[in-house]
Amino acid sequence: MYNQIDSNKRKTALLIIIFIALIVLLGFVFSQLTQMGYSGVAIAAVIAILMALGGYYQGDKLALSTAGAKGPIVKQDNPYLYRLGENLSIASGLPLPKVYLIPENAINAFATGRDPKHASIAVTTGAVEKLANEELEGVLAHELSHIKNYDIRLMTVVIVLVGVIALLSDWFIRVRFWGGGRGHGDSKSSGQIQAVLLLVGVILLILSPLIGQLIQLAISRKREFLADASSALLTRYPEGLAKALEKIAREDMPVQRANNATAHLYIASPFGRKKHSMAKFFSTHPSIEERIALLRKMISH
After folding, report:
1. 290 is in an annotated binding site
2. Topologically, how does it sit relative to the membrane (predicted)?
3. Which of 38, 88, 105, 146 has the greatest CB tally within 10 Å of its CB?
4. Pick the catalytic residue: 86, 134, 143, 246?
5. pLDDT for residue 274
6. pLDDT at residue 183 greater than cutoff 70
7. How far apart are CA 256 and CA 270, in angstroms?
8. How many C-alpha atoms does 135 have within 13 Å on its Cβ side?
9. Is the peptide bond before 72 cis (omega within 30 degrees of 0)?
């Protein structure tokens, strides 16, 4: 369990470093090829941060509303679910998050909130009804782990980085279209260098939103692995979560009110499983089979 946690933290840190390096490179190319210079990079960063802050402080309410979550529940509403959350919160040293019920038959759940003091967990009625005690406990522990690991905060930072890349790419295309790029200089060699830079810059800035999106998805998948390992550490029973994931895979039922903006929050893809070979690169979640195998590897050790 500890090895899995350390490994996923290192991989997440590496992806963030790659992300930042990509933005630095884009910023340099952007400054060289447009009249906006480095000021354009600064403006893009400020706009992206302001947009992300809105999501950071209000995103939990939006996610819960979009999912049609009801609550927060009190102990009298659902003593079983409430006590499970309460016991796991005590074991993890976290304040009890607000618990919501989503009236959906699919087995799924998600956590949201900017920090442990402002956190919520939403669980589908299908999960409460269809999962055994230790399975539901594994699911709740997974969501509590997202809260404890500050995954919502991390993904907010990632969204800022993606926003900077998208803005730079969009501005670059607009500036070049309207003829706002820098001149090629007087000398022939200078013109050739500028032409090469322009070609590389166009390719990089056009492809960068896709690259940024792929890195964001990769980070999301690593945080799912981390939450799985942290859940196993919290419950000391990896098989509970493994069996819950098996039921999710076997049922393969989409969450009716899920959308692309909130998909990464759920414990498993709320759209059902995609079958084509490239799906893993464009998925917010790693394959359920891989997650189950890693959980059971923890048991064998």
Report:
1. no
2. Multi-pass membrane protein
3. 146
4. 143
5. 66
6. no
7. 8
8. 17
9. yes
